[in-house]
Amino acid sequence: MGFTINNAPRVEGLKADNQLMRKMELACRGGCLATTRFAFDMVYYEDRRRDFHLNLILGDGVKEGGKTYYFDRHGKAYSTEEIARLPGKKLAVGSCTKPLAGMVDRHVDGCMTLPNSPHMALHWLSGTFCTVMSPKNKQLMSLLVGTLQTMMARIKLIRQGQRLDCPMHFDDSIVEPRPLSEEEKEKDYIPWPLPPLTGQEKRQLIKNEIRSVLATFKG
What we know:
Oligomer: single chain
Strand content: 5-15%
């Protein structure tokens, strides 16, 4: 793991230890760490555990000398070239790790990732099947039908021009607010009506709905 965001600890000369890595792990409180932990818990309680060598990569890495490095729990640094040569399967989670997508076995995009994506990625990497998606699950058909009905209902409302959620971004970015008047600056909250959906936004939101459902099943 490795982070360069403002509250991440600074690593001098690529020298780190276990204590510093604990701070590094908590530098980003986004969804990648939480959904990845959820993924391991799901596989554990599904009783689909399988021993295999897995390298898990989080964050955008630490920059040093024009190169990007990641650290293991003990503080040992690995360049991206060394990561590519590591034995075993490789899973990179989050938009920060997108530059590694071509050198890992599975990359899960998003900031945060869609909640079930790391879970399904683990099944894919371990060659196991999710018990929730198994034909042995008596509620599987109800789950599939309910999921599709929800998706279609949401798509119908989007096509009608209704905003169902706050604008969703799959990258870590800052949305600048409109200029505020002096009076507005003194208020506790400011009404901020969202503009009507454009045709392009509708198409993108519909793609996001489909993407969310697919992530439930395939990661």
